[in-house]
Specification:
The protein is an alpha/beta fold. It is about 45% helix and about 15% strand. The strands form 2 sheets. Strands 1, 2, 3, 4, 5, 6, 7, 8, 9 and 12 form a 10-stranded mixed sheet that branches. The protein has a two-stranded antiparallel ribbon with strand order 10-11.
Length: about 425
Amino acid sequence: MTKTKKISIFALIFLLIIGSFASLWYLFFKESDKVSVLIGAGKQGSEPYIFAKALQRVASLHYPNLDIKIVETRGSKDSLDQIEENKIDFAISQENIKVGSSATMVAILYSDFFHLIARKDANISSFADIVGKKIALPIKGSGQWVSFWFIAKHYDISIKDFQNFPHFSNDYTRALQEKEIDGVFIVRAPMNKNIKKILTESNSTILPIDQAPAITLKQPVLREDILLKGIYSGSPAIPPKDIQTISVNRLLVAHENTNKEAVFTITQILFERQQELLKETPLAGMITQPDISKSLSMPVHEGAEQYYNKDKPSFLEENAEFVGVLITIALLAWSGLSGLKQYFLASQKNLADRYSKELMDILDEVNSSNDPNFIQRKKVYVEDMLKKVLHELDKDNVTVEGFQFFSFVWDKVYNVIIDKQKLIKS
């Protein structure tokens, strides 16, 4: 072997050794950059827990340096307490639960609605009628527990005024069927499967919180809202008519010292991987960013704020109140959910998309008008539209998936109309 060949071989071996060490060095520091975060997400199987699992799955697919671990908690209050104690990095919580000084907002995930459910033969027609009755309450100290007692205080109802049965939390349907309880109070998003089971199997009905406008004045993060006729079943309609109630945002909250890059990445997942989150939970279609220009219940985390400001100014940021609707329509229309794709492609028998587009036109008209009479006419028109779509649902001209999509859009547009009426009056 010539001297030149020996030098070439030694040079090649040397380069291979250097390359191997470089690769190992890169992998070592790449792994050392990995960030682990803990998310408090309520009870296993709950909507917040499912939402956290969706975040975890998407992060594992696209962001290997972000390791999300889910912590089971007793509910919103417990999660926020652990945030304040710096035991966890994130929490999924109702906005009406008091936060400590360490909590910061990341995003608005979806809306929870207050459900007061009672047996039809229990002689309960409103919240005030629970006096003397047997009512099952959520876990003591949970966000739902806090929400119930906030409403009860408005009606001057104390723990001595009714019988509390908290131990039925996993078996409300059976307890109502066997008349062991007269009613139950639950705070959950509309179309919740457990609530649907209660209403369809236990001869029960949803009752109105008839003083919702007065109650919400005492806590600004609460909103007077409507559980739409037919939201749990179209035929027969459950509820049989629109029910006045209260709703509250479900938030993703972070400790102020949570890693800035981790918060940025999770915020990025919420808005840029939304269609993948939708495959895990339809509630992902409701994600919106907080309006930083308004007074919020807590400051926005700097990692989330960095994401929101990365491309400013933009149309979406200047119209934050409509971001949820616009993103929902755009992503659901083009998502990989085969059911929705079939719905849009086979629209000859399904009118929901036409009504949804009409709602968006009405949204533009309402947004550009300050005429109270015009706004009221549009409100009545939108209410009539819901009745028409329910009628089409009964005739099988609208699919269940199509109605769910329409109802989300309808709820957003209707709330905009209500807000516009308040703005005009003020």
